[in-house]
């Protein structure tokens, strides 16, 4: 069944919406984490009563935040990358540049999928075993949500790489206007 030209655009827009929602979630998480750290500092210094588990929450939150934001960052072309050679090729030989970009985007898909595939079983296992981080009787939190965020974020990143790879493939085929 042939798809119209708008079908890929709709999928990209839906994926972009999901990536944006994950990014907003991470931004809100950052703000809440800042409030928690501030409350902990005040509690430690003013009341001599720190909030239990803040270091553990911060440690896992940083990883969760990164993986919630990474697909959005890639989708908007804001990931750090050295593209001096690619930039020159895109100016002088646009199709060869697009081919190089296609290869790198497909490599990104592969790496992101390998990461998601490696982490997901660990998230499931952590859930099934009830794995916790922290000190029993003091503070404990489940590990599986953070592992699930890493796997989900990696899957979203793979999708972002794939969307960009499709765009590069269209440039290689000469059917894309920039």
TrEMBL record:
GO terms for molecular function: transmembrane transporter activity. It is found in: Cell inner membrane. It comes from the Bacteria. The chain crosses the membrane at residues 12-37, 57-75, 96-120, 146-169. GO terms for cellular component: plasma membrane. Signal peptide: none annotated. It holds the Pfam family DctQ. Residues 33-170 form the Tripartite ATP-independent periplasmic transporters DctQ component domain. The keyword Lipoprotein does not apply. Its main location: membrane. Part of the tripartite ATP-independent periplasmic (TRAP) transport system. This is TRAP transporter small permease protein. It comes from Sedimentitalea nanhaiensis.
